[in-house]
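Reviewer 2 asked us to include a model.

Predict the structure of this chain.
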Amino acid sequence: MALSSPGSTASGTGTPDPASPAAGRPTRGLMALLLAGNTAMYTLYIGVPGLLLALQIEEIDPAGKVANFGLVSGISAIFATVFNPVAGALSDRSGRRNPWILAGGLLTLPVMLLLGSVHTILLVTIAWCLGQAVMNIYQAALTSVVPDRIPLAARGKASAAVGLGLPVGSTIGALVGAAFSEDYRTGYLVFGAIVAATAVLFTACAREQRMPAKAPLPVKRQLAAFGSALKDHDFRWAFIGRALLVLGYFAVAGFQLYILKDHTDLPAGLSPEEAVAILMPVNSIAMVVSTVLGGWLSDRYDRRKLFVGASAALAAVALLIPAVSTSWTAMLAFSVVNGLGFGCYMAVDTALVTMVLPKAEDAARDMGVLNVANAGPQIVAPFVASLVVSLSGGYTALFLIAAVLSVLGALAVRPIRSVR
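Predicted model (structure tokens):
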């Protein structure tokens, strides 16, 4: 999974010319399909690694589950980050999105069948990398639908539809994962079926016109673009702040099931899988509320740095709660406060970044650079988390280190000069 900023594309496609098909194409019904497509994607991205994959790895090697889960998650994240722009470039060159959405979605089903049938850590790693491959084919093409088909005047609504896929999909993924915690093989098939069915629905209802084929950007130019954007003072600090906060967030989020199993004192009769199914909707609701409210308030008072710094600091406070208490109440409080902090941060920080982009004509390219700050920490987080837990013998140190990273992320916005 690569967390993406709304409005940016993995494949590097830019904003269409007003005369292009996207500028005048009707979007009625496409918003709902974008919500459905992104919801299905996040349903699998949350439910599979967050629950079923963790349970499968624990069944294979209970004693080494933390190190193995970190290894599988880290390797698959590297694979996903590398494969996403490749998949995007392929759909760019074809000038089509629907065939890639359909192919990626349909292939998810047999890959999930394969993942549920393997019994060694090596084969789980290979199968989940294949899963990341087909899901990134689906994701890269789906993400490019917004700049391809949505008029500029409707981009805000489209970004909202894409963004809502995360909390809605997270909730569904947690509930489905918990429902099949005793039979993860069937659970994998259910997740695959959800993505496959949504891909069929999307491509059947969202007709497209063939876009002009685009030549892939040479690797040298991509590297030069990356370096050029980070030379800008304000953009560099925005990039650093995003990377630090995302690293702290995913270092904890990826190990949520094991935290509930080995760190939290759950009430009698409440299983860790059921606890995830409770925490995820609570976190998602808090995230939706803070996303909407934070974006509105930051617009009203024209204070982006204040809200970005405060929300990152709030995320740090949230991480301290389970560090000082192992109670179920502490985890509930953590879920609410963390959702409020992270949701507000992602909404307002994305707005802040659009205000510190080095050049308006390179906006799409530089937003793609920002996505490295989203995807890169997700690669590092599993390795960091498993190392911290293994060396410290518990999860308290992990919460404390993640809190420090969030504080540093809050402080990183202070040097930004061009935005209040």
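The domain at 1-9+25-216 is CATH 1.20.1250.20 (Growth Hormone; Chain: A;). The two ends are 32 Å apart (CA to CA). We have added this to the supplementary material.
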